[in-house]
Amino acid sequence: MKFIADLHVHSRFSRATSKNLDLEHLYVSAQLKGITVVATGDITHPEWFKEVSEKLEPAEPGLYRLKKNIEKNCDEQVPLSCRSKVRFVLNSEISSIYKKTGKTRKNHNLVFLPNLTVAASFNRKLAKIGNIVSDGRPILGLDARNLLEILLETSDQAFLVPAHIWTPWFSLLGSKSGFDSLEDCFDDLSNQIFAVETGLSSNPVMNWRVSFLDGLTLISNSDAHSPDKLGREANIFNTNLSYSAIKKALQYRDARTFLGTYEFYPEEGKYYLDGHRNCSVRFSPEMTLIFGGNCPVCKKPLTIGVLNRIEEICDRKEGEKPQNTSPFYSIIPLKEIISEILKVGSNSKKVLQHYQHCLHVLGSELAILDLITLSDIESAGIPMLKEAVKKMREGNIHIVPGYDGEFGKIKIFTENEKKQF
Ligand SMILES: [Zn+2]
Ligand SMILES: [Zn+2]
After folding, report:
1. How remote is the CA of residue 283 from the centroid of ligand 2, in Å?
2. Residue 418 predicted with pLDDT over 90
3. What pTM did the predictor assign?
4. Which is deepest, 23, 254, 344, 399, by most CB within 10 Å?
Protein backbone atom coordinates (compact mmCIF):
# COMPACT_ATOMS: atom_id res chain seq x y z
CA MET A 1 0.00 0.00 0.00
CA LYS A 2 1.18 3.48 -0.87
CA PHE A 3 1.22 5.89 2.06
CA ILE A 4 2.88 9.06 3.30
CA ALA A 5 4.79 9.25 6.57
CA ASP A 6 6.02 12.21 8.58
CA LEU A 7 8.59 10.81 10.98
CA HIS A 8 9.77 13.87 12.90
CA VAL A 9 7.33 15.94 14.93
CA HIS A 10 7.20 17.21 18.48
CA SER A 11 4.65 17.35 21.26
CA ARG A 12 3.68 20.36 23.35
CA PHE A 13 6.29 19.19 25.88
CA SER A 14 9.14 20.28 23.62
CA ARG A 15 10.45 23.79 23.91
CA ALA A 16 8.96 26.39 21.55
CA THR A 17 6.09 24.24 20.38
CA SER A 18 2.43 25.12 20.22
CA LYS A 19 0.10 24.29 23.10
CA ASN A 20 -2.27 22.32 20.92
CA LEU A 21 0.40 19.86 19.81
CA ASP A 22 -1.40 16.82 21.18
CA LEU A 23 -2.40 13.47 19.69
CA GLU A 24 -5.87 14.65 18.71
CA HIS A 25 -4.53 17.60 16.73
CA LEU A 26 -1.84 15.44 15.12
CA TYR A 27 -4.55 12.97 14.11
CA VAL A 28 -6.73 15.66 12.55
CA SER A 29 -3.85 17.47 10.87
CA ALA A 30 -2.41 14.24 9.44
CA GLN A 31 -5.69 13.67 7.60
CA LEU A 32 -5.89 17.23 6.32
CA LYS A 33 -2.37 16.88 4.97
CA GLY A 34 -2.83 13.35 3.59
CA ILE A 35 -0.43 11.61 5.97
CA THR A 36 -1.04 8.04 7.12
CA VAL A 37 1.88 7.46 9.51
CA VAL A 38 2.92 10.21 11.86
CA ALA A 39 5.57 10.06 14.56
CA THR A 40 4.54 10.67 18.15
CA GLY A 41 7.79 12.53 18.81
CA ASP A 42 8.95 13.13 22.39
CA ILE A 43 8.22 9.58 23.57
CA THR A 44 11.10 9.93 26.07
CA HIS A 45 9.10 12.57 27.95
CA PRO A 46 7.27 10.94 30.91
CA GLU A 47 4.08 12.99 30.61
CA TRP A 48 3.86 12.56 26.86
CA PHE A 49 4.61 8.85 27.26
CA LYS A 50 1.72 8.62 29.70
CA GLU A 51 -0.61 10.43 27.33
CA VAL A 52 0.45 8.22 24.42
CA SER A 53 -0.10 5.09 26.56
CA GLU A 54 -3.56 6.26 27.59
CA LYS A 55 -4.88 7.56 24.30
CA LEU A 56 -3.35 5.16 21.78
CA GLU A 57 -3.87 1.44 21.31
CA PRO A 58 -1.91 -1.07 19.24
CA ALA A 59 -2.89 -1.27 15.57
CA GLU A 60 -0.74 -2.99 12.92
CA PRO A 61 2.52 -4.49 14.32
CA GLY A 62 4.62 -1.70 15.83
CA LEU A 63 2.09 1.01 14.98
CA TYR A 64 -0.54 2.65 17.17
CA ARG A 65 -3.87 4.35 16.62
CA LEU A 66 -6.05 6.70 18.63
CA LYS A 67 -8.67 4.89 20.65
CA LYS A 68 -11.89 4.67 18.67
CA ASN A 69 -13.97 6.99 20.86
CA ILE A 70 -11.30 9.71 20.58
CA GLU A 71 -11.02 9.18 16.82
CA LYS A 72 -14.75 9.58 16.48
CA ASN A 73 -14.76 12.98 18.17
CA CYS A 74 -11.82 14.17 16.08
CA ASP A 75 -13.26 12.97 12.78
CA GLU A 76 -15.95 15.62 12.95
CA GLN A 77 -13.21 18.20 12.32
CA VAL A 78 -12.06 16.46 9.14
CA PRO A 79 -13.88 17.00 5.83
CA LEU A 80 -15.22 13.76 4.34
CA SER A 81 -12.93 14.29 1.35
CA CYS A 82 -9.86 13.93 3.61
CA ARG A 83 -10.89 11.18 6.00
CA SER A 84 -8.51 8.26 6.16
CA LYS A 85 -6.75 6.18 8.77
CA VAL A 86 -3.86 7.55 10.79
CA ARG A 87 -1.22 5.51 12.55
CA PHE A 88 1.43 6.58 15.03
CA VAL A 89 5.00 5.38 15.28
CA LEU A 90 6.88 5.88 18.55
CA ASN A 91 9.95 8.07 18.38
CA SER A 92 11.84 10.90 19.96
CA GLU A 93 14.51 13.42 19.08
CA ILE A 94 17.50 13.45 21.41
CA SER A 95 19.85 16.40 21.61
CA SER A 96 23.37 15.27 22.44
CA ILE A 97 25.90 17.85 23.63
CA TYR A 98 29.34 16.46 24.35
CA LYS A 99 33.04 16.86 23.70
CA LYS A 100 34.71 14.68 21.12
CA THR A 101 38.12 15.00 19.47
CA GLY A 102 38.71 18.39 21.06
CA LYS A 103 35.47 20.09 19.99
CA THR A 104 32.06 20.58 21.51
CA ARG A 105 29.61 18.55 19.48
CA LYS A 106 25.91 19.17 19.37
CA ASN A 107 23.73 16.93 17.39
CA HIS A 108 20.15 15.83 17.13
CA ASN A 109 19.12 12.25 16.46
CA LEU A 110 15.77 10.57 15.95
CA VAL A 111 15.30 7.28 17.78
CA PHE A 112 12.53 4.92 16.67
CA LEU A 113 11.05 2.36 19.04
CA PRO A 114 8.95 -0.66 18.10
CA ASN A 115 6.53 -0.60 21.04
CA LEU A 116 5.73 1.03 24.35
CA THR A 117 7.48 -1.64 26.42
CA VAL A 118 10.75 -1.04 24.60
CA ALA A 119 10.20 2.72 24.83
CA ALA A 120 9.68 2.46 28.60
CA SER A 121 12.88 0.49 29.06
CA PHE A 122 14.83 2.90 26.83
CA ASN A 123 13.46 5.82 28.84
CA ARG A 124 14.55 4.23 32.12
CA LYS A 125 18.11 4.00 30.79
CA LEU A 126 18.15 7.60 29.62
CA ALA A 127 16.69 8.82 32.91
CA LYS A 128 19.81 7.50 34.65
CA ILE A 129 22.02 9.49 32.29
CA GLY A 130 20.32 12.87 32.27
CA ASN A 131 17.17 14.91 32.55
CA ILE A 132 14.40 13.64 30.30
CA VAL A 133 11.67 15.47 32.19
CA SER A 134 12.28 19.15 31.47
CA ASP A 135 12.07 19.01 27.68
CA GLY A 136 10.27 16.80 25.16
CA ARG A 137 13.50 16.88 23.19
CA PRO A 138 15.88 16.00 26.02
CA ILE A 139 19.36 17.46 26.11
CA LEU A 140 21.86 14.84 27.23
CA GLY A 141 25.62 14.92 27.65
CA LEU A 142 25.63 11.60 25.85
CA ASP A 143 27.91 10.85 22.91
CA ALA A 144 25.69 10.08 19.89
CA ARG A 145 27.59 6.84 19.35
CA ASN A 146 26.76 5.74 22.89
CA LEU A 147 23.16 6.80 22.45
CA LEU A 148 22.99 4.48 19.46
CA GLU A 149 24.61 1.67 21.43
CA ILE A 150 22.12 2.00 24.28
CA LEU A 151 19.27 2.09 21.78
CA LEU A 152 20.38 -1.08 20.00
CA GLU A 153 21.01 -2.86 23.30
CA THR A 154 17.44 -2.05 24.30
CA SER A 155 16.01 -3.56 21.13
CA ASP A 156 17.42 -4.81 17.85
CA GLN A 157 14.28 -3.47 16.18
CA ALA A 158 15.00 0.08 17.29
CA PHE A 159 16.88 2.38 14.94
CA LEU A 160 18.44 5.80 14.84
CA VAL A 161 18.27 8.45 12.12
CA PRO A 162 20.47 11.56 12.40
CA ALA A 163 18.13 14.57 12.22
CA HIS A 164 18.39 17.57 9.83
CA ILE A 165 22.04 16.65 9.20
CA TRP A 166 23.15 20.02 7.77
CA THR A 167 21.72 22.48 10.27
CA PRO A 168 24.66 24.67 11.41
CA TRP A 169 23.89 24.11 15.08
CA PHE A 170 22.71 20.77 16.39
CA SER A 171 23.43 18.34 13.61
CA LEU A 172 25.69 15.52 12.49
CA LEU A 173 27.39 17.48 9.70
CA GLY A 174 26.53 21.08 10.65
CA SER A 175 29.10 23.82 10.18
CA LYS A 176 29.15 24.95 13.84
CA SER A 177 29.39 21.79 15.89
CA GLY A 178 29.10 18.83 13.57
CA PHE A 179 31.49 16.25 12.17
CA ASP A 180 32.95 15.85 8.70
CA SER A 181 31.73 12.31 8.22
CA LEU A 182 29.39 9.68 9.60
CA GLU A 183 32.32 7.64 10.95
CA ASP A 184 33.74 10.55 12.92
CA CYS A 185 30.49 10.57 14.87
CA PHE A 186 29.36 6.95 15.13
CA ASP A 187 32.73 5.16 14.93
CA ASP A 188 32.34 1.38 14.99
CA LEU A 189 28.53 1.66 14.90
CA SER A 190 28.40 3.71 11.70
CA ASN A 191 27.12 0.74 9.75
CA GLN A 192 24.00 0.74 11.93
CA ILE A 193 22.94 4.03 10.34
CA PHE A 194 20.96 3.48 7.15
CA ALA A 195 19.01 6.71 6.79
CA VAL A 196 19.56 10.41 7.44
CA GLU A 197 17.13 13.32 7.53
CA THR A 198 18.15 16.02 5.06
CA GLY A 199 16.31 18.88 6.81
CA LEU A 200 14.37 21.79 5.36
CA SER A 201 17.42 23.69 4.06
CA SER A 202 18.72 20.93 1.82
CA ASN A 203 17.17 18.75 -0.86
CA PRO A 204 18.36 15.42 -2.30
CA VAL A 205 20.21 17.09 -5.20
CA MET A 206 22.44 18.92 -2.74
CA ASN A 207 23.04 15.74 -0.73
CA TRP A 208 23.95 13.78 -3.87
CA ARG A 209 27.16 15.81 -4.01
CA VAL A 210 28.46 14.05 -0.91
CA SER A 211 29.45 10.51 -1.87
CA PHE A 212 29.65 9.14 1.68
CA LEU A 213 25.87 9.58 1.85
CA ASP A 214 25.31 7.38 -1.23
CA GLY A 215 24.43 4.23 0.69
CA LEU A 216 21.94 5.99 2.95
CA THR A 217 18.24 6.64 2.48
CA LEU A 218 17.59 10.38 2.44
CA ILE A 219 14.41 11.02 4.37
CA SER A 220 12.47 14.24 4.90
CA ASN A 221 10.11 15.22 7.66
CA SER A 222 8.33 18.31 8.90
CA ASP A 223 9.99 18.66 12.33
CA ALA A 224 6.65 20.28 13.11
CA HIS A 225 6.38 22.50 16.18
CA SER A 226 2.66 23.01 15.53
CA PRO A 227 0.05 20.66 13.99
CA ASP A 228 -0.35 22.95 11.01
CA LYS A 229 3.28 22.43 9.92
CA LEU A 230 2.84 18.69 9.58
CA GLY A 231 3.86 17.28 6.20
CA ARG A 232 5.77 20.30 4.93
CA GLU A 233 8.28 17.57 4.13
CA ALA A 234 7.40 13.86 4.16
CA ASN A 235 8.25 10.38 2.87
CA ILE A 236 6.36 8.22 0.41
CA PHE A 237 6.30 4.49 1.14
CA ASN A 238 4.83 1.59 -0.76
CA THR A 239 4.84 -1.29 1.66
CA ASN A 240 2.82 -2.96 4.41
CA LEU A 241 1.57 -0.75 7.15
CA SER A 242 3.87 -1.88 9.98
CA TYR A 243 6.88 -0.70 11.93
CA SER A 244 9.14 -3.39 10.52
CA ALA A 245 8.06 -2.75 6.92
CA ILE A 246 8.85 0.95 7.33
CA LYS A 247 12.21 0.12 8.85
CA LYS A 248 12.98 -2.36 6.08
CA ALA A 249 12.04 0.12 3.35
CA LEU A 250 14.48 2.64 4.84
CA GLN A 251 17.15 0.04 5.41
CA TYR A 252 17.16 -1.53 1.96
CA ARG A 253 16.10 1.55 -0.04
CA ASP A 254 14.29 -0.59 -2.54
CA ALA A 255 12.79 1.61 -5.27
CA ARG A 256 9.58 -0.40 -4.97
CA THR A 257 9.04 0.23 -1.25
CA PHE A 258 10.57 3.68 -0.72
CA LEU A 259 9.11 5.99 -3.35
CA GLY A 260 10.90 9.19 -2.37
CA THR A 261 10.18 12.41 -0.55
CA TYR A 262 8.23 15.62 -0.54
CA GLU A 263 10.63 18.50 -0.14
CA PHE A 264 10.60 22.10 0.90
CA TYR A 265 12.44 24.30 -1.55
CA PRO A 266 15.80 24.34 0.29
CA GLU A 267 16.20 28.08 -0.38
CA GLU A 268 13.07 28.55 1.72
CA GLY A 269 14.80 26.86 4.69
CA LYS A 270 16.15 28.90 7.59
CA TYR A 271 19.79 28.04 7.01
CA TYR A 272 20.27 27.92 3.25
CA LEU A 273 22.72 30.81 2.74
CA ASP A 274 25.30 32.30 5.13
CA GLY A 275 24.88 35.47 7.11
CA HIS A 276 23.87 37.37 10.20
CA ARG A 277 20.19 37.93 10.71
CA ASN A 278 20.66 40.76 13.23
CA CYS A 279 23.10 42.54 10.92
CA SER A 280 20.92 41.95 7.82
CA VAL A 281 23.87 40.32 6.11
CA ARG A 282 22.91 37.56 3.68
CA PHE A 283 25.83 36.04 1.78
CA SER A 284 26.33 33.40 -0.86
CA PRO A 285 29.28 31.08 -0.18
CA GLU A 286 31.36 33.17 -2.64
CA MET A 287 30.68 36.39 -0.72
CA THR A 288 31.48 34.72 2.58
CA LEU A 289 34.83 33.69 1.14
CA ILE A 290 35.55 37.25 0.01
CA PHE A 291 34.88 38.54 3.53
CA GLY A 292 36.96 35.78 5.11
CA GLY A 293 33.96 34.22 6.84
CA ASN A 294 33.32 37.29 8.99
CA CYS A 295 30.41 39.70 9.11
CA PRO A 296 31.20 43.12 7.58
CA VAL A 297 28.86 44.76 10.12
CA CYS A 298 29.74 43.20 13.50
CA LYS A 299 33.02 41.52 12.45
CA LYS A 300 32.03 38.26 14.14
CA PRO A 301 32.03 34.90 12.29
CA LEU A 302 29.03 34.46 10.01
CA THR A 303 26.59 31.61 10.45
CA ILE A 304 27.59 29.29 7.65
CA GLY A 305 24.54 27.89 5.93
CA VAL A 306 23.82 24.53 4.42
CA LEU A 307 24.78 25.38 0.83
CA ASN A 308 28.26 26.51 1.90
CA ARG A 309 28.74 23.57 4.26
CA ILE A 310 27.83 21.06 1.53
CA GLU A 311 30.25 22.75 -0.88
CA GLU A 312 32.92 22.43 1.78
CA ILE A 313 32.40 18.71 2.35
CA CYS A 314 31.27 17.57 -1.11
CA ASP A 315 33.34 15.51 -3.51
CA ARG A 316 31.03 15.77 -6.52
CA LYS A 317 30.33 18.67 -8.85
CA GLU A 318 26.99 20.42 -8.97
CA GLY A 319 24.51 18.41 -11.02
CA GLU A 320 26.35 15.09 -10.70
CA LYS A 321 24.07 12.28 -9.68
CA PRO A 322 24.92 9.02 -7.92
CA GLN A 323 23.23 5.75 -8.90
CA ASN A 324 19.98 4.56 -7.32
CA THR A 325 18.63 7.85 -6.09
CA SER A 326 15.04 8.19 -4.91
CA PRO A 327 12.74 10.66 -6.62
CA PHE A 328 11.58 13.80 -4.84
CA TYR A 329 8.87 16.39 -5.31
CA SER A 330 9.31 20.02 -4.30
CA ILE A 331 6.24 21.53 -2.72
CA ILE A 332 5.07 24.81 -1.21
CA PRO A 333 2.58 24.72 1.67
CA LEU A 334 -0.92 25.30 0.28
CA LYS A 335 -1.62 28.13 2.72
CA GLU A 336 1.45 29.98 1.42
CA ILE A 337 0.21 29.55 -2.14
CA ILE A 338 -3.24 30.86 -1.26
CA SER A 339 -1.66 33.66 0.75
CA GLU A 340 0.25 34.87 -2.29
CA ILE A 341 -2.81 34.68 -4.51
CA LEU A 342 -4.98 36.60 -2.05
CA LYS A 343 -2.17 38.98 -1.00
CA VAL A 344 -2.90 38.48 2.70
CA GLY A 345 -0.90 36.76 5.46
CA SER A 346 -0.84 32.96 5.45
CA ASN A 347 -2.31 32.88 8.98
CA SER A 348 -5.21 35.16 8.08
CA LYS A 349 -8.84 34.12 8.34
CA LYS A 350 -9.31 34.62 4.62
CA VAL A 351 -6.53 32.17 3.76
CA LEU A 352 -7.89 29.65 6.25
CA GLN A 353 -11.37 29.84 4.70
CA HIS A 354 -10.03 29.29 1.18
CA TYR A 355 -7.76 26.50 2.43
CA GLN A 356 -10.68 24.69 4.06
CA HIS A 357 -12.74 25.16 0.93
CA CYS A 358 -9.98 23.57 -1.21
CA LEU A 359 -9.76 20.57 1.12
CA HIS A 360 -13.53 20.11 1.13
CA VAL A 361 -13.73 20.16 -2.64
CA LEU A 362 -10.50 18.43 -3.60
CA GLY A 363 -9.13 16.33 -0.74
CA SER A 364 -5.94 16.43 1.33
CA GLU A 365 -3.23 19.07 0.93
CA LEU A 366 -0.52 16.73 -0.39
CA ALA A 367 -2.98 15.31 -2.91
CA ILE A 368 -3.74 18.84 -4.11
CA LEU A 369 -0.06 19.74 -4.32
CA ASP A 370 1.08 16.58 -6.06
CA LEU A 371 -1.62 14.27 -7.36
CA ILE A 372 -4.83 16.00 -8.36
CA THR A 373 -5.06 17.08 -12.01
CA LEU A 374 -4.86 20.76 -12.83
CA SER A 375 -8.33 20.73 -14.34
CA ASP A 376 -9.73 19.32 -11.10
CA ILE A 377 -7.88 22.00 -9.15
CA GLU A 378 -9.55 24.58 -11.36
CA SER A 379 -12.89 23.25 -10.17
CA ALA A 380 -12.17 24.52 -6.65
CA GLY A 381 -12.96 27.93 -8.10
CA ILE A 382 -10.01 29.81 -6.60
CA PRO A 383 -8.60 32.13 -9.24
CA MET A 384 -4.93 31.46 -10.12
CA LEU A 385 -4.70 28.36 -7.92
CA LYS A 386 -4.36 26.09 -10.96
CA GLU A 387 -1.60 28.31 -12.41
CA ALA A 388 0.16 28.45 -9.03
CA VAL A 389 0.16 24.67 -8.59
CA LYS A 390 1.29 24.23 -12.19
CA LYS A 391 4.21 26.61 -11.65
CA MET A 392 5.12 24.92 -8.38
CA ARG A 393 5.09 21.47 -9.97
CA GLU A 394 7.37 22.77 -12.74
CA GLY A 395 9.69 24.42 -10.22
CA ASN A 396 9.05 27.70 -12.02
CA ILE A 397 9.12 30.01 -8.98
CA HIS A 398 11.32 32.67 -7.36
CA ILE A 399 12.83 32.52 -3.89
CA VAL A 400 14.63 35.01 -1.69
CA PRO A 401 16.82 32.52 0.19
CA GLY A 402 16.74 32.00 3.96
CA TYR A 403 19.80 32.53 6.21
CA ASP A 404 20.85 32.53 9.86
CA GLY A 405 17.49 31.40 11.20
CA GLU A 406 15.35 33.46 8.83
CA PHE A 407 13.06 31.53 6.48
CA GLY A 408 13.36 32.26 2.77
CA LYS A 409 10.48 33.91 0.93
CA ILE A 410 8.80 32.31 -2.03
CA LYS A 411 7.18 34.13 -4.89
CA ILE A 412 5.28 32.03 -7.37
CA PHE A 413 4.17 34.84 -9.66
CA THR A 414 6.02 37.84 -11.01
CA GLU A 415 4.07 41.12 -11.07
CA ASN A 416 3.58 40.68 -14.82
CA GLU A 417 2.22 37.18 -14.40
CA LYS A 418 -0.17 38.41 -11.74
CA LYS A 419 -1.62 40.95 -14.14
CA GLN A 420 -1.76 38.38 -16.91
CA PHE A 421 -3.76 35.88 -14.84
ZN1 LIG B 1 16.29 18.99 15.94
ZN1 LIG C 1 27.06 40.51 12.11
Report:
1. 11
2. no
3. 0.96
4. 23
